[in-house]
Design goal:
heterodimer; A: 133 residues; alpha+beta; Heat Shock Protein 90; 5-stranded antiparallel beta sheet; 39% helix; B: 120 residues; alpha/beta; Transcription Regulator spoIIAA; 5-stranded mixed beta sheet; 4 helices; 5 strands; globular; binds adenosine-5'-triphosphate; binds magnesium ion
Chain lengths: 133, 120
Amino acid sequence: MNLRSSVDIITEWDIVAARQLGRNEAKEVGFGTVDQARITTAISELARNIYLYAGKGKIEIRQITDGNLRGLLVIASDKGPGIVDVRKVMEDGYTTSGGLGAGLPGVRRLMDDFKIETVLGEGTTISASKLLR
Amino acid sequence: MITRIPILKLRDCLIVSIQWELDDQTALSFQEDLLEKLHTTSARGVVLDLTPIDFIDSFIAKVLGDVINMSGLMGAKVVITGIQPAVAITLIELGIRLENVVTALDLENGLEKLERELED
Ligand SMILES: Nc1ncnc2c1ncn2[C@@H]1O[C@H](COP(=O)(O)OP(=O)(O)OP(=O)(O)O)[C@@H](O)[C@H]1O
Ligand SMILES: [Mg+2]
């Protein structure tokens, strides 16, 4: 079983590839259709942010276990400009690109666990996980 | 490789059934195609069926919202049909409210609703 897989985000089409990989992994772990949609949506948001704001980066998807619960961990990493004000980007409606500003606050609600590590000028790594209950 | 979404005309309505996962370019070219078709056919309504769509992210939601507003500017009403439960749940969790959007359960209900709205 492939427990760890990743997609390099370079072009717009890689966003599609990343979310398809995510959906397949979510199915494999045994998530239901609503959680599959949550995970797919979260990956799409993170992958598009990489494409828009960092130019390129990577989406990694790992199957995880916590006690006897299985789940998925999504890690979106890039070597882009980093995020100036993390609190601000987590506000609903905050956007620097004329989007809806729904992506990051949305991902936090769609997944169980959410973490941003970012260093200005060095890049951003966002991890989000969900366990199968 | 951009897939073009077919747009059918029935009386004074356009019918669009989205059959595949929408990538960004397909969504954007659909936006243009639909407005162009509204212009050339003078259709007064659009039914947009999303039955096979199993997720909608913020980008697609924005494109759909824009299409609805732009169609409104051109004098056409849009009814969205076939939103799956999982899609409805994730849209709300994303914090996206498609405000003032007319929806119906399926294509048939959507067409009926649209015809009623166009009579008023
Ligand atoms: N990987 C990243 N690197 C640098 N900045 C980022 C990154 N991801 C997000 N941001 C910043 O955070 C802001 C908020 O992101 P978020 O995804 O919530 O909204 P958005 O992308 O602007 O709009 P939406 O996702 O609704 O289309 C972005 O506008 C951008 O300025
Ligand atoms: Mg975003």
